[in-house]
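Lecture 7 notes: from sequence to structure.

We start with a single chain of 36 residues. Read the sequence below before looking at the structure.
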Amino acid sequence: MLLDVLKIVVVVFVLGALGFKGQFLTRWLSDLTEKK
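Now the structure, written as tokens:
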């Protein structure tokens, strides 16, 4: 039971981190394209 909860927490944390990085990358790319 506890292991299942830990797995869910880890998955949510990883997905959140990836989503945050994705937003940062898209913003950085959009800034680069706008400057050119």
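The mean pLDDT is 91. Keep this in mind for problem set 3.
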